[in-house]
């Protein structure tokens, strides 16, 4: 992942979030990544510090969202 602090940033922060990112959403200073390894990984911004897994599933996580207040994480897995 790359994080630009502004549109003119010539040196973005780069970090590895997962081998396969299927979905992501940002809220304030966090990014939530739905992965092919069946979990939602959480990273702190802007440095990309891994804050751990927020949820685990039995299939790849392909939808992730956070409520406006940041108090609810919604994620889904499976194929239609």
List its traits.
globular, 80 residues, four-stranded antiparallel β-sheet
Write up this protein.
The protein is globular, with a radius of gyration of 13 Å. The chain is built from no helices and eight strands. A hairpin with a 3-residue loop joins strand 4 (30-35) and strand 5. With 80 residues, it is an all-beta fold. The strands form three sheets. A four-stranded antiparallel sheet has the order 3-4-5-6, with no helix packed on it. Strands 1-2 form a two-stranded antiparallel sheet. It has a two-stranded antiparallel sheet with strand order 7-8. The protein has one domain.
Structural class: mainly beta
In the sheet with the most strands, the strands line up as 3-4-5-6
Instruction: Tell me the domain tally.
Output: 1
* Gap between N and C termini: 27 Å
Q: Would you count the extended β strands for me?
A: 8
Summed over residues and divided by their number, the pLDDT gives a mean of 90
Gross morphology: globular
The arrangement of helices and strands along the chain is: EEEEEEEE
List the helices and strands and how they pair.
Layout: E1 2-3, E2 13-14, E3 21-27, E4 30-35, E5 39-44, E6 49-56, E7 61-66, E8 73-77
Antiparallel strand pairs: 1-2, 3-4, 4-5, 5-6, 7-8
Sum this structure up briefly.
The protein has one domain. Helix content is 0%, strand content 52%. The protein has strands spanning 2-3, 13-14, 21-27, 30-35, 39-44, 49-56, 61-66, 73-77.
